[in-house]
Amino acid sequence: MPTATMTPIPNTQYLDVHALRADFPILHRRVHDKPLVYLDSAASSQKPQAVLDAMERYYETTHANVHRGVHTLSEEATVQYEAARARVADFIGACCPKEVIWTRNATEAINLVAYSWGRANLRRGDRILLTEMEHHANLVPWQILAAETSVDLDFVPIADNGTLILDDPDRLLTPRTRLFAFTAMSNVLGTINPVKELTAAAHRAGALVLVDGAQSVPHMPVNVQELDIDFLAFSAHKMLGPTGIGALWGRRELLNAMPPFMGGGDMIREVHLRESTWNELPWKFEAGTPAIAEAIGFGAAVDYLDAIGMDTVHRHEQEITAYAMQKLSEVEGLKILGPGPEQRGGLVSFILGDVHPHDIAGVLDSMGIAIRAGHHCAQPLHERYGIPASARASFYIYNTEAEIDLLVAGLHKVVEFFSY
Amino acid sequence: MPTATMTPIPNTQYLDVHALRADFPILHRRVHDKPLVYLDSAASSQKPQAVLDAMERYYETTHANVHRGVHTLSEEATVQYEAARARVADFIGACCPKEVIWTRNATEAINLVAYSWGRANLRRGDRILLTEMEHHANLVPWQILAAETSVDLDFVPIADNGTLILDDPDRLLTPRTRLFAFTAMSNVLGTINPVKELTAAAHRAGALVLVDGAQSVPHMPVNVQELDIDFLAFSAHKMLGPTGIGALWGRRELLNAMPPFMGGGDMIREVHLRESTWNELPWKFEAGTPAIAEAIGFGAAVDYLDAIGMDTVHRHEQEITAYAMQKLSEVEGLKILGPGPEQRGGLVSFILGDVHPHDIAGVLDSMGIAIRAGHHCAQPLHERYGIPASARASFYIYNTEAEIDLLVAGLHKVVEFFSY
Amino acid sequence: MDLYAEEILDHYKHPRHFGHLDNPTLTYHDTNPFCGDEINLELRIEDDHVVDVAFTGQGCAISRAAASMMSEEIIGMSLDELKEWDKDNILDLLGIEVGPVRIKCALLPLKALKAAVWGLGEDDTVTR
Amino acid sequence: MDLYAEEILDHYKHPRHFGHLDNPTLTYHDTNPFCGDEINLELRIEDDHVVDVAFTGQGCAISRAAASMMSEEIIGMSLDELKEWDKDNILDLLGIEVGPVRIKCALLPLKALKAAVWGLGEDDTVTR
Ligand SMILES: Cc1ncc(COP(=O)(O)O)c(C=O)c1O
Ligand SMILES: Cc1ncc(COP(=O)(O)O)c(C=O)c1O
Question: How far is Cα B79 from Cα B101, in angstroms, rounded to an integer?
Fold first, then answer.
């Protein structure tokens, strides 16, 4: 674990960031005539050339619709498309590719579970446990389900330091609790939740576990079998992959027992005018022409991350984050949300006196520095802290401590600029 | 209308296909050491370089998450993303961009209507009218809905010549019929249905109209206001665009009155722990990070088609199709499904003696010719004709009459090859 | 740093008409939940004309400057004139390029103004 | 035209064991709805060994050749041996590369065979 007292070096000790940045074309762009400092990867990451090339190559040499075609292009496309699924399955330690269902994004993955598993299994009086730190993606689908099925929602509260308060698990994990859905890492607080412990508690209470891995899968090793969870949702675009694709992983027995979500081509076995039977996993949940090029791009992204190693990715980000927290705390009036560096992933959200986060981001943008401002799709979390919005700098493999220095220098300017 | 007696010329009279083929990198590929003859565009079209470049350029210079970011990249990405929506809205003659909702594909667009409009509006005893020629995408979602809501399905039958039999519209369009959902063009028979007339009949009966435009929007001019329909579903990947994106167009009043489908970021206005309010159109129906690059690619595809002109696209295909039908009918034992060239779009499905369609496609593939074989996601249609499968050659702007000649020569070989 | 031109910063730091009126004819409250911005707009109308205005609320510099500049501008204008106003009037006042995301900030005061004057019109309770 | 090697074409045009048995011990019917392929497999088992086999159905050349070749091969084999069979046995018989889509055609006869012999085992009604 990096300590907070280390001195700035151009790369972290874990990763040759400067070499790696050459792989990301966008990082050579200038913004307002300054080199781009991209600190918004928690919203969406940038893409290495290898990912773009994989998709371009696919379109230029192989594209055809998958599964149904007898001709060479279709067979080759099918092989590449399913190989990408196997790669992603492997990346998260799934038993087998058929447990990985392609979706548009993490959000759709969670909605799939709410629609299919939720409507088939929940009855009035059943309860779903969430936390107060959930992204809207892991909140709104359950609200919609709850309104339809008269299921009740409970929420694990958050302590002032940004960690979950679960000292009384039995009160929240009642005998009627059927699902505990929580994020592995908060996209605002940065908090890394103890997935294994939370899962064990849920299972003791007889509840299933859905993990929102949108922020964990891109940034640290995740092994679904070791964690012993039941569902995992994540998005390619936050982990060097393209937009338009994400995945739901689920345990085979659960997925097998679930009714389909959307209907159409590919998800069927036999169709008659008035009734149909369903295909096997994973295709039962994939209706219509899938995001073929995107799946292949996702596979290439996972290859890129695997070549670095997720342990290295995580350690690099923790080092950057510790450094950032130390430097940010020196900015006048700046207050960091969330726990200390040892309990958090690669992002820091903060408020700065009474300067509106939009203005912080606006001034930084004029210096080429991209951070996010707003409620980051976590309004209830901001309500919990009594603030309308916050500013967030988030890091990935391509960020350097030198960029943190630019951020901090920029914030000093912001303070100066808006002082009365 | 091209007649069936014209002589083969390398290009049709409408389009300089040879010049245009240079824009499609994959068309220069060889398959089994023969030049690729791609006759499977109804399953998925190939992509011009301009579409690939638009996406690559986006990733290399602009990518960031849309709508929420204050920084330059996010603002630029948002502008490009929403401009693509406006382009597509314009392409189908929509009143305004907000009537266009991005989905993964045509299939999801139909499911969206089934889930959102269907569950909110239909009651036991209500009826939905479909046709016997629907793709599974416009059949299975309604079966799932019917099973859940005890709504009844009716079907417009097909005549032997592949056209709809609607001489008794009042019997099928009952006072309880709430929706008439049909394809504008059959992906097997090639039949172009009279959308305007069918829509008028449905509206007289008080039913809404959903048009499956997966095969019409790519191949002919479609103007939703002129047709006076209520919903239109289509996919980018069949019209020179990328995989992973499609669209639902719907009339504003209808979309406004519909509840959301999936929940998550971007589709909300305000979120609290136990309740939320929804964003305006189109975002109300777009949960989570959208397919940003894909939307931009879709916009570029529509630009490419617009530059040619959809009238020209349609005329070119009709000429190719008339030529193909004439030549194919000379192959021994070959039987074409569907109506004459004046009533069909750019595809020809057929059976060939008792040679299994897979074998037809398999032998043609060895000659570099890609056609499709199977039930083309229209099993009930094949049941209607008492055949398990068919072979299909489908055409697009890049196909030439010379390619038809290769197809026909190939089919003569197939006959020879499999004759006893 | 175009977005934060001298004048905008001045209006942000020293907002004109910030506060409350004693006896407003119209008040309207609006929010932009996306940003957590809020505005409370109060108008004093006499003979179909704006004779005084005040606002409170929280928001970024752009939205606060827009509210401040708008307040200065609309005093003396008739309700009919205000009904003609659109986003170009605000953007002209601000005198900067506003991107597609921050436009929501810039237009919040206008949204409140339009709702206030049109709401009045609909109730047919115009004049004092 | 690898897929349609001489031998495959021969089995397709002149399928061995095509037809019905007089008194099958086991019959199994399976379909591949994706292709519209169908197979009806009949086995005559004596002393846990295949003594005769027949099949009917419709399908492409690959699936029909696979059924024909498989039928020739399994006569004389024990049920235990057949339970060991997997897709490699069929692909070896066919002697060609089969892609991910057409593999379903090639393996339909094997699927029927496995279901027949395992089904038997499960019912514990093995031997005549
Ligand atoms: C008529 C028709 N409808 C719907 C679809 C489904 O399109 P997609 O798979 O892109 O959702 C297709 C294409 O497969 C089609 O031909
Ligand atoms: C914790 C968390 N969950 C879910 C999501 C939703 O991801 P997406 O928008 O890709 O569906 C995000 C990202 O925005 C996130 O940070």
Answer: 16
Average pLDDT over residues C85-105: 89
Contact C61 A420 (CB under 8 A): no
To test the contact with chain B by mutation, choose from D60, D98, D102, D108 the residue with the greatest count of B C-beta atoms within 10 A, namely D60
Phi, psi of B351 (to 5 degrees): -120, 160
Q: What is the pLDDT of residues A270-297, one digit of tens each?
A: 999 999 999 999 999 999 999 999 999 9
Q: Which of D4, D36, D58 sits opposite B363 (nearest CB)?
A: D4
Asked if A418 has any chain C CB less than 8 Å from its own CB, the reply is yes
Distance CA A382, CA A337 (A): 10
Question: Three-class SS of residue A212?
Answer: strand
**Catalytic-role residue among A52, A377, A387, A402:** A377
Using the structure block, give the residue that is written with the tokens 């080759």. Answer: A76
Using the Cβ of D115 and the Cβ atoms of chain B, whether some distance falls under 8 Å is answered with no
Question: Is the separation of the CB atoms in D96 and B392 below 8 Å?
Answer: no
Residue in B409, B411, B418, B417 with CA at minimum distance from that of residue B334: B411
**B145, B111 Cβ separation under 8 angstroms:** no
Cis ω before B282 (30° cut-off from 0): yes
Q: Is A192 helix (H, G, I), strand (E, B) or coil?
A: strand
Mutate to test the interface with A, among B30, B41, B65 (most CBs of A within 10 A): B65
Subunits with 3+ Cβ pairs within 8 Å of B are A, C, D
Q: Model confidence over A16-64: pLDDT tens digits?
A: 998 999 999 999 999 999 999 999 999 999 999 999 999 999 999 999 9
Whether pLDDT at C125 is above 90: no
What's the token pair of residue B81? 């993303």
CA distance A67 to B338: 25
The half-sphere exposure of A180 on its side-chain side, counting CA atoms within 13 A, is 25
Using the Cβ of A73 and the Cβ atoms of chain B, whether some distance falls under 8 Å is answered with yes
Question: Is B45 a pocket residue for ligand 1 (Cβ < 6 Å)?
Answer: no
Does A358 contact C13 at a Cβ distance shorter than 8 Å?
no
pLDDT tens, position by position, B114-170 = 999 999 999 999 999 999 999 999 999 999 999 999 999 999 999 999 999 988 888
Give percent of chain B above pLDDT 70. 97
- Angle at which helix D61-74 crosses helix D6-13, to 10 degrees, equals 90
CB B373 within 8 A of CB B390: yes
Query: Can you tell me the distance from the alpha carbon of B242 to that of B223, in angstroms, rounded to the nearest whole number?
Result: 22
Structure token digits, residue A37: 């400092």
What are the structural domains of chain B? 17-43+309-414 (3.90.1150.10), 51-307 (3.40.640.10)
The pTM of the full predicted model, rounded to 2 decimals, is 0.94
ipTM given for this complex: 0.93
- Pairwise CB contact (< 8 Å): B358 & D12: no
Q: Which among B60, B245, B293 has CB closest to A25?
A: B60
Distance CA(B243)–CA(B105), nearest Å, equals 8
Residue nearest to atom 12 of ligand 2 (CA): A214
| Residue A390: pLDDT over 70 | yes
- Name the token pair of B264: 């998550």
Give the C-alpha separation, A208 to A223, whole Å. Answer: 17
Q: Is B340 on the interface with D (CB under 8 A)?
A: no
Structure tokens at B183: 């394809």
User: Which H or E run contains A305?
Assistant: helix A292-308
Q: B64–A274: do the CB atoms touch at under 8 Å?
A: no
Kindly determine whether residue D34 and residue B363, on different chains, have CB atoms separated by under 8 Å.
no
A201 — contact with chain B (CB < 8 Å)? no
pLDDT over 60 at A372, yes or no: yes
DSSP D33-58: TTTTEEEEEEEEEETTEEEEEEEE--
**DSSP label at residue A166:** -
- Least CB–CB distance from C99: residue in B75, B269, B270: B75
